[in-house]
Amino acid sequence: MPSTRRLSPSIVVPGPVVVVLAGIAGWLIYSAFTGTGPGADDGPVLAEAVAARSPRLTGPAVAITTLGSTAAMAVLAVVVGLVLWVRHRRAEAVFLVGTMASASAVFTLIKRILDRPRPPVADQLVSAGNESLPSGHATMSMAVVGALVVLAWPRLTPGLRLAAVVVAGSWIAAVGFTRIYLGVHWFSDVLAGWALGAAWLAVCTTALIVYRHRRVAVH
Fold first, then answer.
1. Mind listing the pLDDT tens digit for each residue in 131-142?
2. pTM for this model (two decimals)
3. Is the pLDDT of residue 185 over 50?
4. Distance between CA atoms of 146 and 168, rounded to whole angstroms?
5. Mind spelling out the 3-state secondary structure of the chain?
6. For the ranges 29-38, 138-147, 207-216, which has the lowest average pLDDT?
7. Which residues contact 174 (CB under 8 A, 6 or more apart)?
8. CA distance 209 to 196
9. How far apart are CA 20 and CA 181, in angstroms?
10. Distance between CA atoms of 56 and 33, rounded to whole angstroms?
11. Cβ-based neighbours of 27, under 8 Å, separated by 6 or more
């Protein structure tokens, strides 16, 4: 039987929150592109990351950045989405895969419009071929891992909710920091990616909640 369980009211995203998150994302993208605000710290932060490099840190950083790549996040979303679909949780499957696909489209469009160069090749420890702003890794990890937390939320106890937020937040942070450490993104690229991912997740979560409320009202 299809699941009739609804999202907990505590996960509802008020409209003003979506607007604020979108505003923060827009400001961070502007700051990164113009070199103002956090963008002014790009050079010093990259220099500190390069100075902190060591073989002990580089191996784990490469592993984390690979597991947190846009391709890996897409595969994760599709696999979990298929499982949800088979279990008749089809609205949730569409939400997860749709959030992933639309977040990818949004950050790709912004990248192509702004066409910001990446840090110097001499500072890059791994190859990265496309535009720099915003970080796709940061955007997708925030959107996809965040969407998984949203879907799990109603089924978790308060203690597990806290654990889920801590684990998800730690992973998202780690993925973003590896992009700076490996020299393939500026600090402001990552901040903008996190903010864009959070804002887009809020939009998609709101759409899911509106859909579910309307379905309940009809039935």
1. 899 999 999 999
2. 0.89
3. yes
4. 7
5. CCCCCCCCHHHCCCHHHHHHHHHHHHHHHHHHHHCCHHHHHHHHHHHHHHHCCCHHHHHHHHHHHHHCCHHHHHHHHHHHHHHHHHCCCHHHHHHHHHHHHHHHHHHHHHHHHHCCCCCCHHHCCCCCCCCCCCCHHHHHHHHHHHHHHHHHHHHCCHHHHHHHHHHHHHHHHHHHHHHHHCCCCCHHHHHHHHHHHHHHHHHHHHHHHHHHHHHHHHC
6. 207-216
7. 64, 68
8. 20
9. 29
10. 33
11. 37
| Cis check: omega of the bond before 60, within 30 degrees of 0 | no
Please give the angle made by the CA atoms of 84, 155 and 218, to the nearest 5 degrees.
70
CA atoms within 13 A on the CB side of 175: 25
Specify whether the CB–CB gap between 140 and 197 falls below 8 A. yes
What span, in angstroms and rounded, lies between the C-alpha atoms of 92 and 211? Answer: 11
The rounded distance, in Å, linking the Cα atoms of 140 and 71 is 9
Mean pLDDT of the chain: 91
Cα 19 to Cα 21: distance, rounded to the nearest angstrom: 6
Q: What is the pLDDT of residue 12?
A: 53
